[in-house]
Amino acid sequence: MIAAIVVIGAISLLLYLWRRRLLDALLVLLATGALVLLASGWKLPGEMGGTLAIDSARPPASLEGVRALSLQGDGLRAAQWQDLPARPLAWTPPASDTLRLDFPRRLALGRMFTLTVQRTAKSPARLQLLAENGQVLAEARGEGTLTVEWLPPLAETLDLKARLLDAQGKPVAEGPVPVVVSEIPPLRVRGRFSAPSFDLRVLNELLAGSHAVIDWQVALGKTVTRSETAREKMDEPDLLLIDAAWFERASGAARSALLEEVKEGAALLVLGGNANDSAVWSRSVQLALRAQPADATVGALALTAAPLNPAGAQAGAWTGKDAVWARQWGQGRIGWLGAADWHRQAIREPRALALWWQGVLDTLAVQRIEEVHWLDPQEMPLPGQRTEICAQGVTGKVHFPALGQTLDWQRRSDRVDASCVAVWPRQAGWLRIETQGAKPVTGQVYVYADGDWPLWQAAERRDATARYAARTPVPAAQTQGTLPGWPFAVVFALAMLCLWWRERR
Amino acid sequence: MHADADIARRIWRAALLRRLPLWVLGALPWLSLRLLPGLLAWIAWCMWDGARLRQRVSHGWIAWLDADVPELEDSSALLIDADTPLARLQRERLLARIAERLDKRAVRAIVRRHVDMGLSWLAPWLVFAAIVWYFGQGGAASTAAAPAAPAQAARAAIVPELSVSATPPAYTGLARTEGAPRHLELPEGSKLAWCLKNPEAGQTILELSDGRTLNVGAKCAELAATESLFWRWRGVRYTLKVTPDAPPQITISQPTQMIQELKPEAKSAAMALSVRDDYAVRRATLHLTLARGSGENIKFTDSEMPIPASKDPRVRNFSKQWTLAELGMEPGDELYFFVRAVDNATKPHTVQSPTYTLRLPAPEQEEEEQTSAMPMLVKPQSLRSQRQIIIDTEQLIADMRSTRMAAGEARERSEAIAADQGQLRRRYGQFLGEESSLFGGEEEHDDHDDHGSSPANGQMDVLHEFGHAHDEAENATLYDEGTKKILRRALVAMWDAEKALRAITPKTALAPELKALEAIKELQQADRIYLHKTAFVPPPIKEEIRMTGDVVGAASYRREQGEAQDAIPVPLRELVTALSNEGPLPALWTRTAHDWVRERLLDDGQRLAAQRAIQDVADGCLRCRPGLRAWLRAGIAQAPVILQAKPVTQTPFTRSWSKGQPK
Lengths: 505, 663
Prior knowledge:
The structure holds 2 protein chains of 2 kinds. By secondary structure, chain A is α+β, with helices and mostly antiparallel strands. In chain A, the strands form 8 sheets. In chain A, strands 14-13-12-15-16-24-23-22-21 form a 9-stranded mixed sheet, with helices on both faces. Chain A has a 5-stranded mixed sheet with strand order 5-11-10-7-8, with no helix packed on it. The longest helix of chain A has 19 residues, at 22-40. Chain B contains 20 helices and 20 strands. Classes of the chains: A alpha+beta, B alpha+beta. Strand 26 (367-370) of chain A pairs parallel with strand 20 (646-649) of chain B.
């Protein structure tokens, strides 16, 4: 097209020159030049376009024509940055102190609640976890990161508070710590043992105290069997428990039936305290056992080691942690508990023992299926700000009674197996969610007030801003601006009008 | 443009309709009073209200539409201002949706959500009208007497007036107080009475913090204060703090140490003490015990003297510089004393101070003896056991047989064993009340040994020589007769052995030595049996099947899994769950909560705060529910750890992942 313009322009120019109309020739030259420039869309060399200073309180709706951004302070929230296209950002993170809180928003009853406050300040401080009535539930002192632990006794929605005090006892930060403690279905355990012991008895009591459904059989020699039948029907146990003696004495058929069951997806824990025959174990489950010295101890509780244990933390396919060695076995898992004599802790430190056992079950990855799992929001939900709510195992629609909205769950590329919706909560407090999974499920998300945890909000904004800044630099070519077209169009039109006027005269 | 004006007009009309009842209702009193200025004032207010409403509607209708009609997708602003073709297109779409969605009912619903009826405005106007009416009436009444109506009005306006009287228990000596409802601090056991000053006002109800209610009418309501509580009357809470009676406090300022050593030349001893109670000390006595003598010959003399009362019944001070003669102390004596005090509470508290000791050292020469005894006390017991003595004797016999031992060496070794045997005998002899070898008796016995007759003496003589029994074995009542008999046998055997050893005839000593060992073993056995009698008696062991691995008689059993004990009662669990949301609470929940709080919260402040929370929630305060939950939770001493499986959610991703895993 440009060639055509140039050719036509040149011909017109020559014609006017030939007719000795210099002024008209000049006008043609001008019009041709303007049109060529207009059509070619020339890029300007170097940076071009405006730099926008972003105000954190009023983020821009669009960055049309903005080439770069500058920013003072903590920046915007992740949700706000996501609405903006990537632009180079001139920003220095502020040096002021921030906080980051880490705690589970949902907790199963009977699990320890842990609140961790990561501080950038290094001064000594005190962290308190407070109940709704202001009573101190837990307290921690120290420098840097502080952690408090508390065991909630009831299944309920907790509006706890946390308070960070400095060395003089002056509050540095205070805000809500919302947690939903939920009831859990009982653990289903099937136990088969050949060597009665105090350990077994303590374990049985621990499980019974946890409201577990227990099917328990202890064989004494060949003729006597003491069994406890489950209080309700148990088709598929969550956990199979055996002692090493049972496995060693069991027939080949019983052993392979058990291992087959594990292969189908069960979790099996072997109490190694009475292991005797290492050959059986290396043959059947490829577990290489070594005799342990009599005074060896294992694990965080320093329990007596089992007579036979794997040599190190890694033993073939077996990986050990805190006296438990576990491996994948088909769809299921097998664990070897290389500790004994935990009954000694039962009176002295019952809670530590129960927590240790929970650790054992978690290491073994004893699992139960949960229909819907709500994911913790990636940033603090605030009123009037877009909040992303994600869950696993949900389908169909989600309803927010407080907002009067019903939305469709949407798959997201950055969450492989979760579905998300975005909402704008109106007010602080619990936001109720109703959705369909395999059956109707309700959940709730806590919406913080604007003034809650300002230091944490600042930290989140800084993180989001840092992530946004990392989205650029964009290639240099794109930062060049094109020449604006309209002046050339005007020049062209004026030149042509002049020509036309002169021709008509 | 027309469309948006149309929608705005519709919303404005609906808002007007919503306010209309208020405007009409507000005009009615003035119309009924036929008061033109009032009516005009009302109309002026209505106009102002209308203008305000107009402003609200015109500013807010877009936001209202956005908030309440999700189909508009927050784009109502486009209805007013759509300057790009795309916006115009979207606006057309919105208008179509509005036409379909925004019928009259919907508009009314939107307005209902954002514009209230404003009935709260009615109250001040009605009050205003009532005041105007009242004064108008008052003027009329003064001119035309109408006695019945004011009397009725006065009766309706009677406010019950309450007086609270508190009568502390008589023993406190505190005066009865009476007055208006107020915060009170009373001693435990006080009697509280609430009475109406004007019983014609009818009954009134007091709510106590523990859930009880008291009716105060013609009869006064009474309460015995046993624990801190608060009571509520006409919306105001008054705290009643109950202070329990304190036990008397005894302070002994002299002597300053629990065991005070007096100087040997001391002639007197100072004693200063005070007894203090919150109301009155009823009785305070000083108990003195003088110990004289040493060893087993100690005599105790007890005496008791009252501490005289002072002017202030709450305090009794006593200080005296006792002369030793008054106390009856002589060198070597010890005086123990303590103070016992009783207060005048309904259930009297009896308090006893720790026991102090005044010690007057014995004269110099006796002290020497004592100091020489001291190292003996700390000397480690190096007793050889009977078994070792036997081994030593056997070794000596073997050595004497195998090697030609010098007579001196044989004598020396034999006597050394004899000394060991003697020491052991004295050790056992202690149990029969004989003099101890551990408190410096060894030398004495060596003396005895020295003046003992020749080794060739007969057995009985030797026994007498060595026996030297200071005390009667029968007086030692530590053991039963059977044990003592065995002990005596052992001692006799030891005597024999010692005698033979001192006679350098170890061979003859061996037999009694073994006899003694047997007796000692029997003694140890006897001891065990003695313990058995007092404790658990195990079932007899069937020796014939023991350690055979035979399980005959051991039976299999099969039982149902037991129910786990729950530390938290079910009603409380249900109550806390109900308190988690804003729904109705279970029946009789206040009783559950009160019982739990009384049983579990022992601190007065905490209990009162919890009871306050219960009362608030019972009044219907929804915001107080979390606080009450926290108080109920505070009553749970220790939360149990519940062993559980980790929850996992099966998603299409995890399902296909696990399918892909090798089996």
